[in-house]
Design brief:
By secondary structure, the protein is of the alpha/beta class. It has ten helices and seven strands. The mean pLDDT is 95. The radius of gyration is 18 Å and the shape is globular.
Length: 265
């Protein structure tokens, strides 16, 4: 399990090193609000200290600062750590950078913790969730976003067998495949304007707003990492409940993924 975890970290490190820039809707507060749904009012983040677990190349860090956070602790274990620092340099006085795994976060006290698109790539995420819990002040909240199982049954019947190949082939080949899939996704989005196709809400409200480059990154992100899990609602909520979070609530984002929040008593 350690090997696949380390391989996944390396996969993302390589990915974010080569594709480190995010722009437009994909890097916007509108996109961040879409992830959080009704679970977090971004105005509540103003002046807060926030822990971001799995910061990648800095996209979520910048969103948190744009929301008014006074300080962000950015945790990134992969080789893309230098890109994270480089991309967020204009805000470095408000950021503490930690080049380590979430399970190794040192003691601190923060108002909020976020982990967007990370826990579903960790074979055993509970130690990371535990560290988020330990670092929160009483009354602090932890929000996660993970791939969902419900509503994705047909998609998973296609992507899971495909990932057995795409997660091990050289990136140069995967890049070509992702561009091919991106072309067909463009056609699918186009026809979705006139027909009610599967995932029509997600297509219209998210993917249609992304640039061609960012849609490519979404596809590459689905096919590349060594490990990915798709959570059912109960499983996603239990990630937080098992650690001791209270008032756990979830949001079925566009009927394909789960955003979950919990509070430390």
């Amino acid at each position: 399990m350690t090997d696949i975890n380390d391989k996944t970290i390396k996969d993302f490190g390589d990915q974010w090193t080569h594709y480190s820039q995010n722009e437009g809707y994909y890097a916007s507060l509108e996109f961040f609000k879409d992830i959080c749904g009704p679970l977090v009012d971004l105005s509540d983040l103003q002046g807060k200290t926030i822990l971001d677990i799995g910061s990648g190349s800095g996209r979520i860090v910048k969103m948190l600062l744009d929301s008014g956070a006074s300080r962000v602790v950015a945790v990134e274990p992969s080789g893309a750590f230098e890109k994270l620092v480089e991309n967020t340099r204009p805000w470095e006085k408000k950021i503490e950078y930690l080049n380590l795994k979430g399970e190794n976060i040192p003691d601190m006290k923060v108002d909020y913790a976020f982990s967007i698109g990370v826990l579903h790539h960790i074979p055993d995420p509970q130690p990371t969730v535990q560290r988020a819990f330990d670092c929160l002040k009483p009354g602090g909240k932890f929000l996660i976003w993970v791939y969902g199982s419900e509503g994705n049954e047909f998609y998973l019947s296609l992507i899971q067998p495909l990932r057995k190949l795409t997660s091990i082939i050289p990136d140069i080949i995967l890049v070509g495949l992702a561009h091919i899939f991106n072309f067909f996704l463009f056609l699918y989005i186009f026809f979705n304007k006139f027909l009610v196709l599967p995932f029509h809400r997600y297509l219209r409200e998210v993917l249609a707003k992304l640039s061609r480059k960012d849609r490519f990154l979404v596809i590459f992100d689905q096919l590349n990492p060594a490990y990915a899990r798709y959570y059912r609602r109960e499983e996603a909520e239990n990630l937080l409940k098992k650690i001791g979070f209270i008032n756990v609530a979830s949001f079925h984002r566009h009927a394909y993924s789960w955003t979950v929040i919990g509070e430390k008593e």
